[in-house]
């Protein structure tokens, strides 16, 4: 397994939830992390938490972290960040596309503008990230991309039609894009988390529990944690033969 030390990782959605958990784990193993999000205050708080985590893992060499505030569905945002990183001679070894927004509305009652926002953030943000960052990875003949999809991409979910469509698109993107860039030494994989405990998903899980015991529907009888998703992302990055993999992380729910 390859080390995460002395690498540079861009992590979208890195100011909270799964993205932040991945950033913390990578930073603890010596990765220099670039966080991407829309809220500058949250990004600043997240950067502080990375530094605190490094102090607890002082055996690793110091890493340099930074952040960029922009909407991942803006190609100009991606271009501006990468141009800035190029000026400061920062190579990109890892990209984790974890930015995403959820949905809790029936399609025939949903707001078209909100549906477009879900597609733009979840799917187009991932597409633009892969498109932009892979150009540098191809030039350096190395790199690893992990896209965060969802179990709902293949299993569906009540009130999540557009969200599921956006996440299914990420799976299709990954499977095809991996075929394009593997010959350049660039690996692309996708993670499909099931029900994961985060601040963003908590209201949805509470609503689902009102209709039935959510945990009881999962073979492991519990929800997953963001830290467990981070462990899976690290595995995909570290294993040099992991390419075009679709990894479920759902406590066995996909088998039911």
From TrEMBL:
Gene3D superfamilies: NAD(P)-binding Rossmann-like Domain. It comes from the Eukaryota. InterPro entries: NAD(P)-bd_dom_sf (IPR036291), Sc_DH/Rdtase_CS (IPR020904), SDR_fam (IPR002347). The keyword Transit peptide does not apply. PANTHER family: 3-OXOACYL-[ACYL-CARRIER-PROTEIN] REDUCTASE, SHORT-CHAIN DEHYDROGENASES/REDUCTASES FAMILY MEMBER. Belongs to the short-chain dehydrogenases/reductases (SDR) family. The keyword Transit peptide does not apply. It holds the Pfam family adh_short. GO terms for molecular function: oxidoreductase activity, acting on the CH-OH group of donors, NAD or NADP as acceptor; quinone binding. PROSITE patterns: ADH_SHORT. GO terms for biological process: fatty acid biosynthetic process. Keywords: NADP, Oxidoreductase. This is Uncharacterized protein.
